[in-house]
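Working notes for the structural subgroup meeting. M.R. asked for a predicted model of this chain before we commit to crystallization trials. I am recording the input and output together here so anyone reviewing the notebook later can reproduce the run.

Input as submitted:
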Amino acid sequence: FYISLENAYEFTVDVPVRVEHAPPGWILLHPLPAEVRGLFKGTGRQFGSYRFRERRLELDLRKVPNNTAVRLDPDMIKDLPAGIRVLSILQPETVDVKWDRLAERRVPVRSRLEFLPADGFTPVGDVRFDPDTVLISGPQSVVDSTQEVWTEARSFAGLVKDRFDIDPDDTAEAMLTTVKARRPGNYKVDKLNSVSIPFTVSN
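Returned structure, recorded in token form:
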């Protein structure tokens, strides 16, 4: 498939979304899409130059009331080369803008981990996390109703040591899932550093 530099074509292009002028102290209840897909028209030469530019769709939130479905307009796409036109926004055509107060609180970590010691070892205490609480942040309506977060469900067998390195990104994502189970939305959860359980040699 060959493209003439001088002929006009229509192209679909994914464009990053940039949020402008978000109100301080507030957070979107649902995150906006990272990209939108637009239908563009221009010559092969113009489109070639556009591929290497910093293209973006700018959503100015100063002009958007709370609890509003905003129709995305081609004029929101900025930094277009001369001759390139945006014919339409294909996907999504609208985005929902819903604000809530930004809140944070510390909540305890609960375990879905199973520890099976090696022969000759016996667990003598409960699972301990470092830290044993994590900071969650997000929309106040959900943060206020979140009393705890849970790890993922995993089993560890044949253990002979009482401290384990864990992937902080995995644990944060698992705990974030338990917060999102209440309501999909825009949240953050701290990472854990380690998990431990005391063992003793069996008689």
